[in-house]
Design a protein that fits this description.
Elements: H1 8-15, H2 28-31, H3 44-47, E1 52-55, H4 88-97, H5 101-107, E2 118-125, E3 128-135, E4 137-141, E5 144-145, H6 157-169, H7 180-188, E6 192-196, H8 202-214, E7 218-223, E8 242-253, E9 256-264, H9 285-295, E10 306-310, H10 311-317, E11 318-324
Antiparallel strand pairs: 1-4, 2-3, 4-5, 6-11, 7-8, 7-11, 8-9, 9-10
Helix pairs in contact: 4-7
Length: 349
């Protein structure tokens, strides 16, 4: 917890100053993995030899902006691109939150790239909010960010967000593997529910997603545990992987109606090749136009990991839908109970 005790006043003072900040609580030597604690580091030990650390505020850092060319209004799910490590649970969660730009605006204290090399975000630990501070040292390889990539518009906020999670959990290695609800709750403090697709009909699942999409809740999906995320099922959905569920709609076709789900892979590439994938014969020009008008991205030849599935394909290819409530307009109180040995929990919304 010591690393989370930087104060908001420290940020304001340092950010307004002329000296570049280096975080004493999250040094580069500990950022990848804790070799001094005996951690093997999985692939991280091999990475050390070809990682170049560079400041975002340095003039030779890859061309970038903070939120994008139009500030906070530029923020969108496609800003998030998962990198070398298996932290899809974080990246899918952050991508889902970015569907509503002001949620990211509330998360960051910064509004632009920091010349002082310091960033502050509002996070939650044990349901209690605190301000997390990181510096702008980023691991690069061959001139590109090694982990979270820059957005298509050059936005850097996604990579900084990933670093705040690495600090929160100890190092980048510790962010490998997790659940999307925890990633969302770390940012907005929200309650969540997990829905097993096996217990729902197609209509029940579609209506569930539709209801929470209308409410602007934060939705993600988990694929089946069919192997490592380097493997895919027959439809091209990655095994043991987290996706963002962006929205849904019901549309007329020549033979009736189809209920479509809009999904995004945090890798920034689709891979999905089933019904209503980009090259599916089921698309007509009229259907593409209707879907694009309501949900967007149906006309894009290069849509950065976004694809569409009919509800049956979504139910079949994903095991779980995870829904965190949108807390943007909540008035929240926080209470930390110490030495509480009760076992009771509540999932009521």
């Amino acid at each position: 917890m010591e690393r989370n005790k930087n104060t908001y006043d420290d940020f304001l003072t340092i950010n307004a100053g002329t000296n570049k900040y280096t975080d004493p609580n999250f040094p580069k030597d500990d950022a990848l993995y804790w070799k001094d604690a005996g951690e093997a580091g999985r692939d991280m030990a091999q990475l050390e030899g070809w990682v170049d650390w560079m400041r975002v505020s340095d003039s030779n850092f890859p061309n970038h902006s903070f939120f994008g060319p139009n500030g906070i209004s530029s923020v969108n799910p496609q800003d998030i691109v998962q990198g070398y490590i298996g932290n899809c649970w974080i990246m899918a969660a952050v991508s889902a939150l970015a569907e509503v730009p002001h949620r990211i605006d509330s998360f960051f204290v910064n509004t632009d790239v920091s010349d002082a090399g310091i960033y502050a975000v509002q996070m939650y630990t044990l349901g209690v909010p605190f301000t997390q501070i990181v510096d702008d040292w980023m691991p690069l390889s061959d001139g590109n960010t090694l982990f979270a990539g820059l957005g298509k518009d050059g936005s850097i906020w996604g990579a900084i967000t990933e670093k705040t999670f690495a600090k929160r959990y100890g190092n980048y290695e510790h962010t490998v593997g997790g659940w999307m609800y925890a990633g969302v709750a770390a940012i907005n403090g929200s309650p969540y529910k997990i829905f097993d697709h096996a217990g729902l009909s197609n209509d029940e699942l579609f209506n569930l997603i539709k209801t929470h999409d209308i409410d602007k809740d934060v939705m993600t999906a988990a694929s089946h545990f069919c192997g490592s995320h380097d493997e895919t099922n027959d439809a091209g959905v990655a095994c043991s992987h987290a996706y963002t569920t962006i929205g849904c709609g019901e549309f007329s076709t020549g033979s009736g109606t189809v209920k479509l789900i809009k999904v995004r892979n945090p890798w920034g590439q689709e891979q999905y090749g089933g019904d209503y994938s980009d090259d599916s014969y089921l698309w007509t020009d009229e259907l593409r136009a209707a879907v694009h008008a309501e949900l967007g991205d149906a006309l894009e030849p290069n849509n950065e990991g976004i694809f569409f599935m009919d509800i049956d394909s979504y139910k079949t290819n994903f095991q779980l839908s995870v829904i965190n409530q949108d807390t943007s307009k909540w008035n929240m109180d926080y209470f930390l109970a110490l030495d509480d040995d009760s076992q009771e929990t509540s999932t009521d919304w």
